[in-house]
Specification:
3 helices; mainly alpha; 72% helix
Length: 120
């Protein structure tokens, strides 16, 4: 059970490092005072923009808090079956949140690039 919990931790650390790396890369391209697109309609229209700090840190911060919660829960499971199931949940959620963040950063940078508002 301890090995499965550690494996889940490793997966989350990898996911969080990918999110942090993408945010750091985008931070250098987006200038101060530029509102970054964060939410789009199904038709592709920008519904909401946020300051650079908010746009690049909300999802990684929420993922980190979820990681901490799942870390505590994974240490309390008494059975191997429960630990294996939680490992599957942790791996899936980490991957989904990472892909969501990477897609959001890419789409925001593409839109800002099309508007001529970012540095390359």
């Amino acid at each position: 059970m301890g090995v499965l919990a550690i494996l889940g931790d490793v997966l989350w650390i990898l996911a969080l490092s990918l999110m942090a790396g993408a945010s750091r890369m985008a931070w250098g391209k987006i200038g101060r005072g530029i509102a970054v697109p964060m939410i789009w309609s199904p038709a592709g229209q920008t519904l909401w923009r946020a300051p650079r700090l908010v746009a690049l840190t909300v999802l990684p911060t929420a993922a980190f808090l979820l990681f901490l919660y799942l870390l505590v829960v994974s240490r309390e499971l008494p059975t191997l079956v429960g630990a294996a199931m939680l490992l599957g949940v942790r791996a899936t959620v980490a991957a989904v949140l990472t892909m969501l963040h990477l897609a959001q950063v890419r789409r925001g940078l593409n839109q800002l690039g099309a508007e001529g508002r970012i540095r390359f």
